Amino acid sequence: MATPSRRKLIRPGDKADQLAAFAEAALAAAREAERHTAATRLDISVAEIPIRLELCGDTLASIGIAALSGLRSENAHTAARIWAFDTETSGLEPPPPPWGRDAYRPRDALAVEAPEWLEISYGLVPGCLNLFDRHERTGVFWMHDARRLPGWQRTTPLRSLLRSVARRHDAWMLHAAAVANDRAAVLISGRGGSGKSTTAIGCAIAGIECLGDDVCIVRDDRVYPLYGIAKAEPRTVALLSLDRHHAIIGGDDLGRAHLRIADLGPPWRSEGRPVVAVVVPQVSAPAGRLRPLNAAAAVLACGPSTALEITGNGQAEMRFVASLLQRTPAYELGTGGDLTRVVGAISNLLEGVR
Amino acid sequence: MSSAPSRLRPNRPDVIDQTFNGEAVLVNFRTGRYYSLDAQATSVWELIVAEQSPAAAAQALADRFGATRDEVEASLPPLLRRLLDEELVVGELDAPVNAETVPGGVFAPSLQVFKDMEDLLLLDPIHEIDVDGSGWPRLPVGS
Predict the structure, then answer these.
(1) Nearest 5°: phi and psi at A48?
(2) A101 CB near a chain B CB, below 8 Å?
(3) Predicted ipTM?
(4) How far away is chain A from the Cα of B44, in angstroms, using its nearest Cα?
């Protein structure tokens, strides 16, 4: 039996149906923007999930390509399709939102009664809409002017939508750095400023593959990279003499340098590696010292940072982190002092030596 | 254990929780704070989640942790006050309680607060929103 289109089912007075109509109109605007701007198509594989990106306009295309082209895929099948457009380039925008100013919540959340098939969020800075239709497997990213996208967001474009797609496939976006060799991966998780990025970048320079310095995807206990750009504080740039590696491609308004991970060390590869350990950097502990961390302490170190950093209700991510830590040994890793000792400790974990 | 209804309930959806090896981790999305509860505080939290009254379960808590009922009854109110003050639960206490009261004895549930990610949310300009003619929010220059 043919399924009636959602548009025919829409009841004008119903809030969920108003959102459904809004979502359809936003998607129609995105498709129109694709035609208007001769969009750049980028097919990528995120944790082996084939996703087609339609990047409308030069700005969004260059941002997407810089951060995600390392995941380029030739897969003809597409599990989801995402359009990214802005009004400045396309002259198009979604209809006025069917919610009021009181609906905006922290962490890009919207207090709206969305139908179960629709995920919707709005980031106030700089002002961007994320909309994902779980049934149709289509996503829309929209903002007024993509040139206003802050530097720190340019390194992680489409994060909310890629998280939505990944979750549908039981793949989990974690706030963690990750490093790997051919056979294994180590997650580096913890609070901001604990040394995740410095450790991951230090590993890359020492010849260990860096899968990401801030965000990665875990699926079936394998760690996959997502974004090919790392961010380094000025002290990390100085400590590791990063300007000699010709990897700096820009910076952001927070004073951090942006680095192309592929230029730092070994080739950046998109395939997943089994996670063999989770380490939590501890700057007050001697460099390279590994101490087993009980799972509850590890959940405390890893869970909230992922839940708070990732858009949306993080309950499912918290649950996933807890389950992962039931299967994976966790360690506190001292990062105070000589970075070569820190890298050596991680190398030992990857090689199965403790 | 008593199933008397509690007047407190978790502050959903702002608060999420995950219990692991008998210890709960709570995250408050409204404040950006997160919390570690020891085993005793986790038992109290689980009662609240199950919509049971911790006070009505005082004897069961005492039996479980080898404490006296008096110790549990003395320690519960400050913990519940703290949960309320941290906006982890909503509802009402039966009587005013000073959250600074330090519980003693065998039953001394503790809640550790972590504030290092507060800035992440404090920067969110949700109170500065203005809606323009298009219906989309505009932030003041400099936000």
Answers:
(1) 70, 15
(2) yes
(3) 0.79
(4) 18
